[in-house]
Design goal:
There is one protein chain. This protein is of the alpha/beta class. The chain has two domains: about 120 residues, Response regulator (Rossmann fold, 3-Layer(aba) Sandwich), CATH 3.40.50; about 240 residues, 3-Layer(aba) Sandwich (Rossmann fold). About 40% of the residues lie in helices and about 15% in strands. It contains 17 helices and 13 strands. The strands form two sheets. The chain has an eight-stranded mixed sheet with strand order 8-9-7-10-6-11-12-13, with helices on both faces. A five-stranded parallel sheet has the order 2-1-3-4-5, sandwiched between helices. Helix 12 links the parallel strand 11 and strand 12. Helix 1 crosses helix 5, helix 2 runs parallel beside helix 3 and helix 6 crosses helix 16. The radius of gyration is 24 Å and the shape is elongated.
Length: about 425
């Protein structure tokens, strides 16, 4: 019998891209043996998804027969995806042969067009990790592979929200900090705000914190990054909110590679339900990677031509880089500055081909008072309409505006999936 680990993702209805949170796969090797070009195309597309960026994927044709032959002389990977057009007993006979050449610990995902509960039960008994009923799409593959390494009860952990300005000085940091505060206070989720502007970050000032350590200590010591190390760097702001502050000093330069923050984000994702990235307005490899790797993206723009151009360029690029995710959203900030020519929100939305999630008016006294006091807008004026906008954006970005529906507790996840397909 093949020694596979049975870890199955919680069954969910088919969702549109971006409607569910799928945690990324770790650095694993995945090999797929397909019978049809349609499935091979779906697997190839899944390999290009941001959540599979760390997985090494190889695709071959030939199905179960080709897999048995391939592993007679080669070690098996972490995950094998097998498409088969065989019937029930033929599938089981083929798996018995595969067991003789398969390394212990390898996880197997079967793709078949057979909607057979009895077959499913037998596959589970033999330790198959997941069973997908074809035809499959890109997200089916992503969900299956990533779900093998993320326990269902941990699905709420590790959602990363990136906030970035379309142009410098548009107030993206202020909005990021208020949204992070609202996620923690209004939605009562443990959250971390990570200030990625190491030279000029303002999160420490906005939260009235002056920590001795922060995100720079992690970036410059990547070999030390783990949960305990990052915990020591966090500065507690409220019961549910912590800050990973920027040093905001100029004694050194902060030139990093594209993957400089990966270890930090992976560690935070594994322990914190929501992480808000305050991404500075600069186009470096690591800034681009932080945006592409985030689960949700908010672009902050002012109502002028340069912001319009930049917002459109950023949305277009991120949509292309994240085809299986929800498109980035944007808000307009500092709208209504006296005597300043502005692009009307309706015209801005028409050019972007999307409505802003919020239109934040120019309120210099309110924001100035909050900034000077090291407070959030809701602390200064809890009933203010702008505070309500931050609450609404926090709900939109976290997907927690409505109670999440849960499936039956009495059906095994894969059995529930099979039964739902047969209805």
């Amino acid at each position: 019998m093949i020694s596979y680990s049975r870890q199955t993702p919680e069954a969910e209805p088919a969702a549109a891209a971006g409607d569910e949170h799928i945690a990324p796969a770790p650095r694993v090797s995945v090999q797929a043996f397909c019978e049809t070009v349609e499935t091979a195309a779906a697997v190839q597309s899944a390999g290009e998804d941001r959540r599979m960026a760390k997985a090494h994927l190889k695709i071959q044709m030939g199905g179960l027969t080709a897999a048995i032959e391939a592993y007679r002389s080669a070690p098996t990977p972490n995950v094998i995806i097998l498409e088969t057009e065989d019937r029930g007993q033929s599938i089981l006979a083929g798996l018995d042969q595969l067991a003789t050449v398969c390394d212990a610990g390898t996880r197997v995902v079967i793709i078949s067009r057979l909607n057979d509960v009895a077959l499913y039960r037998e596959l589970v008994r033999r330790g198959i990790s997941d069973y997908l009923i074809g035809p499959v799409g890109t997200l089916d593959i992503v969900r299956a592979v990533c779900g093998l390494f993320n326990a269902p009860e941990a699905k709420a952990v590790g959602r990363i929200v990136a906030v970035v300005g379309a142009k410098g000085g548009v107030g993206a940091s202020t909005i990021a900090h208020n949204i992070g505060w609202s996620i923690a206070r209004d939605l009562a989720f443990d959250s971390v705000v990570a200030d990625l502007d190491l030279a000029f970050g303002t999160a420490g000032l906005d939260y009235n914190q002056d920590p001795a350590q922060g995100i720079a200590d992690a970036v410059f010591s990547p070999d030390r990054v783990d949960t305990a190390f990052v915990d020591r760097l966090l500065s507690k702001c409220t019961d549910h909110l912590s800050l990973l502050a920027a040093p905001a000093t100029l004694e050194r330069v902060y030139d990093f590679g594209a993957d400089a923050f990966d270890a930090i984000f992976d560690t935070l994702r594994g322990t914190i339900p929501f992480v808000v990235l305050d991404v500075p307005h600069q186009w470096t490899g690591w800034a681009r990677q932080a945006l592409i790797g985030a689960d949700d993206i908010l672009i902050v723009a002012a109502p002028d031509l340069a912001n319009l151009r930049n917002t459109k360029n950023m949305i277009d690029l991120l949509r292309a880089a994240r085809p299986n995710d929800q498109a980035p959203i944007y808000c307009l900030n500092n709208v209504g500055v006296p005597k300043r020519p502005e692009i009307k929100p309706a015209e801005f939305a028409k050019a972007i081909e999307a409505e802003p999630v919020a239109i934040i008016p120019f309120e210099p006294q309110l924001f100035g008072l909050a900034t000077n006091n090291g407070q959030m807008i809701e602390e200064v004026s809890s009933g203010h309409r702008t505070a309500e906008m931050f609450r609404q954006m926090a709900q939109r970005l976290t997907g927690r505006s409505e109670a999440r529906k849960t499936g039956s507790k009495f059906l095994p996840p894969l059995l529930s999936k099979l039964l739902s397909k047969s209805r």
